[in-house]
């Protein structure tokens, strides 16, 4: 099978660097993940399976795909992803996207740092929200985090094509590097000393989120310049981590865009 090369490069600050733990093959299925991947010239497609109905819809809405598909019956895709997966007649195997490095983050970046968040549905939802708010990159570890494929990609609904992952060996070391490069690292913690809306924000900014239940690890907390909490008015005071990410990004992105008092 011939692989069609991308016809133009991705962002200049994306450099090909992968942790050895990262999979060599990414599986994407479902309408939004596959359509967004086909629209991304930086995504190298290796295999594309479509049902006849999906192929007809894809060509009608987006034109002929840049990679020649194999037309298959729905059960052929079921066998690859499992009968419970909602694939909508689209399945893709692709190479991982080239990833940026901590050193190549832009000086106006908005970064998410995930501390051992392992549920692929949660991480996928975070990626989708991050894409909506223009997050520059997501930093996570090679271990104790789900691979950017399959279930995570489906939950991200195409967001993987817009928000790259920076995979690091040591999260505390990565936060130290970001801090040394002038990034304000704000850890979200229920015991934070002040509410997020009271923190003076500036770019570049990193929001650091911990796993549900455990929260931020102690060493991660120590590498954040600020620990802030999300104050909510209702009876339930804790949020699912993906919901917390959405609330925090909404609050932060709005303030950064408006240049609220106290922002640099």
Automatic annotation (TrEMBL):
Q: Which GO terms describe its molecular function?
A: RNA binding; RNA methyltransferase activity
For the RNA 2-O ribose methyltransferase substrate binding domain, which residue ranges apply? Answer: 27-100
Gene Ontology, cellular component aspect: cytosol
Q: Which GO annotations describe the biological process of this protein?
A: methylation; RNA processing
What InterPro entries does the annotation carry?
Alpha/beta_knot_MTases, Ribosomal_eL30-like_sf, rRNA_MeTrfase_TrmH, SpoU_MeTrfase, SpoU_subst-bd, tRNA_m1G_MTases_N
Which keywords label this protein? Methyltransferase, Transferase
> Highest taxon of the source?
Bacteria
PANTHER family documented for this protein? 23S RRNA (GUANOSINE-2'-O-)-METHYLTRANSFERASE RLMB
| Name of this protein | 23S rRNA (Guanosine(2251)-2'-O)-methyltransferase RlmB
């Amino acid at each position: 099978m011939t692989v069609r090369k991308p016809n133009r490069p991705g962002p200049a600050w994306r450099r090909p660097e992968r942790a050895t733990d990262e999979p060599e093959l990414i599986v994407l299925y479902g309408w939004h993940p596959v359509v967004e991947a086909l629209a991304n010239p930086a995504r190298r497609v290796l295999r594309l399976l479509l049902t006849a109905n999906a192929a007809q819809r894809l060509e009608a809405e987006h034109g002929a795909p840049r990679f020649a598909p194999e037309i298959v019956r729905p059960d052929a895709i079921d066998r690859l992803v499992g009968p419970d997966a909602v694939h909508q007649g689209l399945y893709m195997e692709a190479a991982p996207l080239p990833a940026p490095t901590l050193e190549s983050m832009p000086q106006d970046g908005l970064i998410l740092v995930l501390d051992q968040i392992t549920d692929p549905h949660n991480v996928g939802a975070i990626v989708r929200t991050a894409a909506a708010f223009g997050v520059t990159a997501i930093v996570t570890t090679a271990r104790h985090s789900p691979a950017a494929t399959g279930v995570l990609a489906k939950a991200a609904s195409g967001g993987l094509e817009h928000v790259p992952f920076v995979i690091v060996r040591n999260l505390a070391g990565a936060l130290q590097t970001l801090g040394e490069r002038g990034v304000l690292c704000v850890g979200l913690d229920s015991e934070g000393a002040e509410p997020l809306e009271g923190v003076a924000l500036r770019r570049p900014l990193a929001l650091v989120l911990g796993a549900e239940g455990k929260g931020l690890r102690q060493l991660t907390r120590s590498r954040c310049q600020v620990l802030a909490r999300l104050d909510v008015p209702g009876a339930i005071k804790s949020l699912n981590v993906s919901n917390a990410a959405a609330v925090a990004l909404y609050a932060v992105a709005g303030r950064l865009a408006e240049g609220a008092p106290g922002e640099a």
